[in-house]
Amino acid sequence: MDLCSVYRPLWPQARALSMLVLMLMSACTVGPDFSRPAAPPQTAYVRNPVAATLPAQGQAQHFSPGADVAFDWWRLFKSDALNSVVRLAIANNQTLQAAEASLRQSQNTLMAGHGVFYPQLDARAGATRERSSPVQPGLNSAGSTFNVVTLSGTISYTLDIFGGARRSVEGLQAEVDHQTWLTRAAYLALTANVVNTAIARAGYAAQLRTTEQLIGLQKQQLQTIEVQVRSGTAPYSDSLSLRSLIATNEALLPALEQKISQSEHLLATLEGVAPTEVRVPEIELTALSLPTDLPVSLPSQLVRQRPDILSAEAKLHRASANIGVATAAMFPSFSLTGTYGTAGSSLGSLFAGAGRFWSIGPSIDIPLFQGGSLWFGRQAAIDAYQQAAANYRQTVLESFAQVADALKALEFDAKVLLKQVQAQASAEEALRLLQANYRSGLVTYLDLLVADVQLQQINIAYLQALAQRHQDTVGLFAALGGGWWNAPPSADSRQMP
Known about the structure:
This protein has 497 residues and is an alpha+beta fold. It has helices spanning 3-7, 11-24, 80-92, 94-113, 164-231, 236-271, 299-302, 307-328, 373-439, 445-479, and strands spanning 53-56, 59-65, 120-131, 135-136, 139-140, 145-159, 293-296, 333-344, 356-365. The protein has one domain (31-119, 161-333, 372-486): Outer membrane efflux proteins (OEP) (Up-down Bundle), CATH 1.20.1600.10.
């Protein structure tokens, strides 16, 4: 017996089913086809344009509309210590690793979802020993004991006539996109937080040193005043007032030390290590280079660059696909199933030919009445799409506001820092003149100390303004999306998710 004689009885049915499949392949895909939201028409972020150049501290920051953000934008601060901290955080941050795991999970779920497009093939084998009942209506039988051995295979295929499976896979792909943008958002947040925290720590450390210098000068001033009090040339109230001022400034030291510790602990968390294992970056605030050429993406570019906007767009796409899934569920579903096998009383009789059996044919499931669940399920999917659309628009608006805030912050930072530099220059010149007068005997040592104290107070305010300008520069890079689209081809997964 050859194989052709075995399968020849199936050929007419197979030809009929092939024709049915060809006819059904021209079926439609129900539900809306997703299209990306249009780019916004706005060409600016703020009502009153920010000056193209912001001078301050001898350094001017220039805005370049339409320019791209560098992939490794933190290198513009030109600090090897800062670059090292960022590398450590990217390599070890647990939040970023969790985001990458979620991305891999969505990718594997998508691969599993593609299985719906392929036939399902199953095999089954069984062996039982049975005894028929001796009591059967109309028969006088003593019953019998026998063996049943079966071997069969089943192939089934669900025809995606109305596109429900295709829409489901489309939704899974949108979920992969969503997780991709969430991962890149985590990467952007991580790098921005690391750079900001490192700058903040450098600023606090500089303020701490300057405050300690200020207190030292005030204590020298106190010694001079106490000599004058004992000699009767100064009232005791002057000594009390200065002691109060010294105590007030000394009270600032624990607060600055606490901020430094908190910054180090946050860096430890970002680097994925315990606080006892953190590598404290030796970064001098005044040694950081201020980025001078600042890109400003156009609003139409921003919506294609910011990970949070693209994540919201992917969620909108997923909601659109879910409408198609819910719509397809309201239509009939078709499937083809074929079974071929053999049965016998023993293993040796399985392939004798007499026990062969087969079946092949289509089936259709038609939802006639489901209590409104399918209809309202589709309406719920439409509502979910409208919610996702509103969330997308809100995300875009918030993103524009963040860029506007960053631009205005840099504008105000430049003005504040310019005034601080002017105040610093005036205080330094005043101190220089007093030093010359002191050497000539025209002023007292106390006058010299007062001028030095004023200079140190101005220096503290200057350091605060300088740190704020650096941090707001980081805020602009983050608000523009962080430059992930400019990642070099050589960047690995630990550099660019």
